Amino acid sequence: MTSISAPETRVGSRTRFWRNILTAYGFLLPTLSFKLLFTFWPIAFGIFLAFTQSNIIETKVIGTQNFRELFGTQEFSARGPSPYFFEGMLNSLKYLLCVPVIQFLSIGLAMLVNRQIPAIGLFRTAYYVPVVTSLAVVGFMWKGMYDQHGPLNYVLTVFGLMDAKNPSSLLNNSSYALYAVMLMTVWKGLGYYMVLYLAGLQSIDRTLEEASVMDGANRWQVFWNITLPGLRPTLLVCGLLSTISAIKVFEEIYVLTGGSSGTYTVMYFVYAKAFQDFRFGFAAAAGLVVAFVSLIFGLINFRLTRGNQA
Amino acid sequence: MIETRDSNAAALETIRLMKQKRERNKLITNIFIYALLIAIALVFIYPFLWTVSTSFETTGGIFEFPPNLIPKSPSFRNYVDVFALVPVARQILNSALICFIGVSGSVLLATLGAYPLAKMNFPGRDLVFYIILATLVLPNEAGMIVNYVTSAKLGWLKSDVGKYVAVIAPALANVAGLFLMRQAYLSVPLELLEAARMDGASELTIWRKVMLPLTLPTLSAFAILQFVAFWNTFLWPSIVLQGDRNLLPLSAGMLDLSSQFSTNTRATSAGAVIMILPILIVFLFFQRYFMRGLEGAVKG
């Protein structure tokens, strides 16, 4: 009996095994094929494009010429490195200033709203509204805020920082425009990071804080020794997210200044080369350099926030 | 005897005073906290108030020193104007269409794909999971360029329908959604699935009749997140649709409006209000889902 039935079950289980695999991958097929076409293919083809001269119609492999043009070596040494590329890279690196500012302010904001008092939900909502607003609208609103006669200039004149008779927009001032855009980025992003830190705060064991207060720790000691270590995983994620988006900043610039007044960033360069000059190969090469730089900064960020623990 | 009673009374009095003081301190702290909360809220809300106010203002300068938020002669004229300047009604429909297809498509993909990752044992499962996870960190700066080339090569940029496919398709497979749904599926008891399998239900039936109904809150959270994302995105649509005003969604139309009619701030602010309103309504109604989705996406 057993000798006869055993092979049968094996055959049965084998077909079931294959059917199982088929079902599983069937469920995954739509996601995987879309990922393949719109995520993995762009990475692979983007690297290939970087070594070509390409517009929509034709693609010609030209080796490292795009990179030589970017960095101004060999046949391009007379012209020097691509000026806008390096100006843009410098501005993108300056944009990293947003990262500590956003983290610092959003942790503070999260601690402020992390209390059970009436109407606190209302405030959390108010702080979050900019996050769900399209940058297309946010850019328009902030152009209004920064207008020559706009509310921000009014505040500046009240503090005597701006000539009330002849005010000028910060967005036209090449020494401040980039920081003006950064302020908008901070304003739009704070609510997002606040919610993440709020979740982080609420996952910290409250009894730990209470116990250390009982033992006579002051507020600062509690924050430094209990709260901040508890937030470390959140800090890692948030730091990484904001670092990468700072280096890749483009849309904020696009909607607010159009890259004028010294706000040209390196991703603006990539966009302009691709969709204004239609030099897809050259743009892809610049994009590859940006990818490399953001990878490095991602790793640095990882080491900085992980460092003490490891 | 008298002395002890006196000292008792004195002690009680001190306790009462201390209590009073503590309550007063608490009150002062709370007043301070509310003042701070309101001040910060003003910073976040002011640009919105300005936009709404400007959209109803019809006379005087747009900017005044000091700023004034109450329109002197409020009317809907700017709203009438903006509908005359650009095809706003058409663009609202375009946005609705893109959101409808985009949200249903990405919810379908995420709910399907997460099922085997959470509830099936098959070779390569972990590999697939990590490969998808890797897409979150892999730098993809040339992504938009290659997607444009792909769309052109596939012939999508030749027709209006094709252009819409090109607008929506790249955003359909959403990794955060996949993780959210996987997390939700993991909490569905295995006994339920076993029982359904015993009854001879196919995996597709189990997915539809057991998994989806039980994870509806997470599914809704993800759908709302995607609605906001599809409604707000403007760069890729404006690249693909190349400024064809009748095809643009409202977000890209808004950008077009504020750059082409930059002198007409009033009409533009009316457009901005129209653009924000649906998001605000959805956000206020489904706030709880929203926060859950956001937190889940990071934890997952």
Furnish the topology, listing elements before pairings.
The complex is a heterodimer of chains A (310) and B (300).
Chain A: H1 2-49, E1 52-54, E2 59-61, H2 65-71, H3 83-94, H4 98-113, H5 120-128, H6 135-145, H7 151-158, H8 177-202, H9 206-214, H10 219-247, H11 251-256, H12 266-275, H13 280-306
Antiparallel strand pairs in A: 1-2
Helix pairs in contact in A: 3-12, 4-8, 4-10, 8-10, 9-10, 10-13, 12-13
Chain B: H1 2-56, H2 77-85, H3 88-119, H4 125-134, H5 143-153, H6 160-168, H7 175-186, H8 190-198, H9 203-214, H10 216-232, H11 235-241, H12 250-260, H13 265-285, H14 287-299
Helix pairs in contact in B: 1-13, 2-13, 3-7, 3-10, 6-11, 7-14, 10-14, 12-13
What does this structure look like?
The complex is a heterodimer of chains A (310) and B (300). By secondary structure, chain A is an all-alpha fold. Chain A is 70% helix and 2% strand. Chain A has 13 helices and 2 strands; from the N terminus they run αββαααααααααααα. In chain A, strand 1 and strand 2 form a beta hairpin. The N and C termini of chain A lie far apart (60 Å). In chain A, 41% of the residues are buried. In chain B, 76% of the residues lie in helices and 0% in strands. Chain B is mostly helical. Chain B starts with a helix and ends with a helix. Chain B contains 14 helices and no strands. Chain B has helices spanning 2-56, 77-85, 88-119, 125-134, 143-153, 160-168, 175-186, 190-198, 203-214, 216-232, 235-241, 250-260, 265-285, 287-299. Chain B folds into 2 domains: 1-75; 86-299, MetI-like fold. Chains A and B meet through helix 1, helix 4, helix 5, helix 6 and helix 7 of A and helix 1, helix 3, helix 4, helix 5 and helix 10 of B.
Task: Give a quick set of tags describing it.
heterodimer; A: about 300 residues; mainly alpha; MetI-like fold; two-stranded antiparallel sheet; 13 helices; 2 strands; about 0% strand; globular; B: about 300 residues; 14 helices; flat
